[in-house]
Amino acid sequence: MNAYEDSVRFAVLGPVRAWRGEREVDVGSPQQRAVLAALLLRRGRPVTLGELIDAVWGEDPPAAAVSVVRTYVSRLRKGLEPERGAAGSPRTVVSVGDGYLLRTPEGALDLGVFERRVAEARKLRAAGDPSAAADLLHAALGGWQGAALAGVPGPLAGSEASRLEEQRLDALELRLDVDVELGRHGQVIAELVSLTGKYPLREQLCRLLMLALYRSGRQAEALAVYRGTRGTLVAELGIEPGAPLKDLHDRILAADASLDGRPARSSPPEPAPPVKPAPPVLAHAAIPAQLPADLPTFAGRSAELDRVRALLPVAGSAPTTVVIGAIGGMAGIGKTTLAVHWAHEMAHRFPDGQLYVNLRGFDPTGVLMAPDDAIRTFLDALGVPPMRIPASLDAQAALYRSMLARRRVLVLLDNARDTEQVRPLLPGSPGCLVIVTSRNQLTGLVAAEGAFPLTLDQLSPAEAYDLLARRLGTGRPAAEPRAVDEIITRCARLPLALSIVAAHAAAHPGFPLSAIVDELRESHGSLDAFTGGDDIATDVRAVFSWSYKALSAPAARLFHLLSLHSGPDISAPAAAALAGLPPREARGLLVELTRAHLLTEHFPGRYTLHDLLRVYAAERVQAEEAPKERDLALERLLSWYLHTADAAYPHITPRRRRIPLDPLPPLCRPREFTTHDEALGWCETERGNLVSAVHQAAASGLPGIAWQLPAVLWGFFYLRSHMHDWLDTAGVGLAAARASHDREGEAQGLADRAAALRSSGRFDETIEHLHQAMAACTALGDDDGTESAVANLGDAYLQSGQLDEAVRYIRRGLASDRAVGGAWGEGIALSNLGDAYQRLGRFDEAVEFLDQALAVLRTNGNRWVEGVTLDILGTVHRRLRHHEAAVVYYRQALATHRDIGNRWGEGHSLSNLGDVHLDADEPEAARDSWRQALAIFAEFDHPDAEKVRARLGRLEGGPPGARAQGPAEPGRTA
Fold this sequence. Notes:
The protein is mainly alpha-helical.
């Protein structure tokens, strides 16, 4: 089979399809195509089982959703890799964690081909080759075979289809724009008439139709199109047309000669010959050079500079459009520094001048520069006498655009507040470059004016080092690398903070950098070290305050309350609980903070604060919130985590005893869950915050939350093998309960700590904690807690190899469960007893108890321990050398573990399956099972990884049949 015959191609721009060479692959039912679409749209990144289930069924999945998705994946694998045998590893759809990843070669997905063609077309057009750009755009759009994801059900397909349709329309508008530029206006009118009828609110289509009609000599029809579009916008949305449409309308009314247009050439144009200024009122125009000085010690930002340089045509030719670069980011991130540096670098390409204005969008004076003031400043710089400047803003903007027509001018609009402040200052003709900086996200400028957005992040560690070295010389940083590393860390790689510290160090050349570090340490938790002397613009606290003061009052309150959250990031529902707001209102405020670059949305719906902004927010919350309000906000947040984790608990560990919780505080609404995977996925996403919440509760005088949260996270920590977090939180919770003399909390904390120790293989400590827990529960009169401790002691003695003690405690627990009708505990006890007897070599009794256990467990729906019991039955048959039966039981155990997401159990059964394969003289099958087990244990840094690694090592180099000691059994605690 040649490479072409074996190649795989996929399509999502239309019905979801797949091919191997020229043969189309059957991709199955609509739901199966939805799974394939979800994998394809991730572009080579993993998709979890929970995400696949959400993609297909949304909030109402069937009970067997997990097994159904696995079946779909299995069928896709067979269709895409028919030559792969049962023992072969998948190459196209591979397992990753608890989900899957689809590997596609470069150019194998039609969506990727489409996006690359459009991107290349934009570059060609910017480089002055619209003819080639048009060819590429026609080819890109020709690849669409109907509506994207046609016929694919599920919420993911619905949202993605809308997104892809928007991409198609953007590319279509670009193609039509280029066609009009090339003089093909007569050919596109019919298509534009159809499109404006179908999409009456898309102003760009209306603008192109007006221009095409006007250039075809149909001025009245062009104006009629404008009136119709304006009427639709006003009637349906209550808004007026945007500035580009209004401007075109005005120019058509005035019969502006520049609208006539000539077909663009397919090669970069030569520089235009000098022309006289357009306005008749002037004899000549001045050539302004208003850029501020470039920073001589500019450092870093090489990747960002490469991106903005690519906006302009190569070889120094003039841009064929107005190029707008919008540089955004938080205060102190270096927006103006980068903008000025780039402007100086490009200044020679704009011989008609460089204009600069500080729009004072965020300014210590709080006085915003009005657009008409900025335009008057520019007109004055361009040589327009004051008496010739019109009074109205619209007339000023028209004169300004006329002054820049047919000229190549660079315009730097620094420190803008919003799009409306910027829009009147934009040139109207090709050939100019506009650079805008703002702390706000200028989404309107990007959407309506085609601005290129560039959001600055922290400097990389190497860039931060370079900044210090350029300002201090190379000697001092090289002599004290550790001190430099700590300076960079404490400045959080914020350019302004680094510059302030560098200036302080430069002013004291005799100070070692370690002394500067000591000063930073002493001011830890405040911004006192980051003041720039007599210049308020170099005071980090003052610079942050200008953004803070521009917020609405509710957004400012949420911003400073966020400093109370100690976790790595925060979700919108958690932020709503913190502020005591409805989720919808909180989301609106989070959007406001994100647009102001005071908050970063690092993943959809999840937000982080820059380290120094967190310090500033902490200062504000101390200054502006009363202690009682701070305490209430923190209690709401931590209670939200506790009650939401408790809502997940029955889905992860069904039928287990739940601990009573205190009522929710007012204005706190926890999440709810409907499926096991949804609950498990939430816990995994929030794991860092949940661990942090335990510590914060213990430190903040909320010991109840500190011990209750580890208790409700028991099943999650076990299933995901997060041993370090489990031991950590259980220990903190136990200490908090003891410190507050909470006997009930201490008893629960002892049990939780014992469970974590047992899963970590520390059996002597487990037994000690369980005896303490049993005594504490007995003293409290907690019979259920006492019986649970007895049953867990039986398991702990079993795992430690003290089999006689194990049998004694297990039988004691079994008798108690049967006496009170506790079928749940009875099934666990029977499983443990069967395990004890198989370890004692009493196989007949082991099988008898294990069969009884399976019957009880299945009756009560305890899939967790059912999987463990099936695994033990496999071990019994392996020891009896019934290899085929052992494989059957291990595979049943494996399927059960996977259904409930028990990753440790899955790894354990794979490890045992490898053992039986080796016993049966099947070394390749053994190697495959052990490698899968190792991948799972290594994923969670589980200690059993070393044991499996040793097995693989022995298989490669040791004598046949040699094995290391196996992993500990997965837990069956009560």
